[in-house]
From TrEMBL:
A Pfam family this chain is assigned to: GSDH
Sample GO molecular function, one term: heme binding
Key word Heme present: yes
UniProt keyword Heme present: yes
Cytochrome c domain residues: 23-104
Protein name: Soluble aldose sugar dehydrogenase YliI
TM ranges: none
Keywords for the protein's UniProt record, in alphabetical order: Heme, Iron, Metal-binding
Lineage top rank: taxon: Bacteria
Amino acid sequence: MKHIFLFVMVVAFHLWVSCQTQNDTKRGFQSGTNAESHFQNFCLGCHNDGKSSFVERTWLWGKGRDELFKSIKYGRVAYGMPAFAEGLTDTTIYDLVDYILKMDMKPLVNTDLITVHEEGVEQSEDMKFRVDTVVDGLDVPWGLEFLPNGDLLITERKGELLRFTTHGKLQQITGLPPIIAEGQGGLLDIELHPDYAKNGWLYFSYSSPNEQNNNLANTAVMRARLKGNALVDKQRIFKAMPETNKRHHYGSKLEFDREGYLYISVGDRGNRDRNPQSLDNHCGKIHRINDDGSIPPENPFVGKKGAMPSIYSYGHRNPQGVCMHPVTGEMWSDEHGPKGGDEINIIEAAKNYGWPVISFGINYNGTTFTKDTATVGMEQPLLYWVPSIAPCGMTFVKGDRYPNWKNNILTGSLRFEYLHRVVLHGKQVVKQEKLLEGVGRVRNVEMSPDGYIYVAIENPGKILKIIPIVSH
């Protein structure tokens, strides 16, 4: 009897282990994986700053084992951290916690270098180039814009506007409005008026707090002029509604088109089930306004009952790249998907880009939220990525300095730390290439007026310049 009892207990134990493994598999884990692979699969998409988010980390909600368990299991939704209770078992979560705590004990390793070939020369499939560091000592440089005299304006997400002069001096510009610099919020993009030389208007987006309740905020756009190193004549011309206490998915990119309209991207603000598909709010949309904040009468939803008249397109998740095609004048955008399903789209009036009804991605915890990747009345992306690269910033290569890259798209990869090049034939993607692999989290990419490519890297923050090497 004793042997029979032990046999039954062993069988029961193995059945329990089998059920737990199957349960993890159903919820998005592959059986047989360990904590390190779980971390790579589920955590690094967001927790990666070019080193590791868990080495020499500042812990927001404590670093005790049980505190970390609660953060993973129940999430910190207001800060964009999803709950993994549905996707992971408690045992798996504790394994992740132990792995993360071991990482926290490791010394910080400097990976602040680009892997280059001989003599500092990088080799693209179509061109050789070198990379120079133009500005360093930054934190999270978000927006880049050049003044007519060659000075570079840099927005720091933490709420600073800097001027890097042609003489190599870094100066702070004063007069910014109140900004909520928490989570993904802060001082975001910056753009000059197309006729800046005459009117002096510059535009910037930021996470703007509610005047009565500082816990609530949303994306806003202000225009101002520069008087020395101070902002004057300030006018807030756009404020997204509704405000929320969540601190993620603000967007936000700014771009003028050839007619002088200003396009503004606003993320879904963490409310995917309500905001992107409804026209009665600003979130999960790309907007089009006049340079003074008024609404163009030709906007597609002007006069539609209950619709925000500034909306140009909708069904977006978190677009952090908007740029104009230098030949066609079309507006293009990249946006973050969830776990998989990042996209590049051509933005057209009144079009619905599908989020979250259709997507090539899944939840961060491995569960699904939609089975559909296409449906009638919703646009298909020109390009999508699985797994997510976390695209940020976007520009077309213009001018003649990079002849083999002309009219290619450049976008940054936050997650995999490289610059992504997309080669087009008309509207068809014919080739893709990774540039500057290992450079760090690429937050933005911009063309200077004299035709050079500048790349913003975060944590540690710096601005790089790509210089083509011309063969004679």
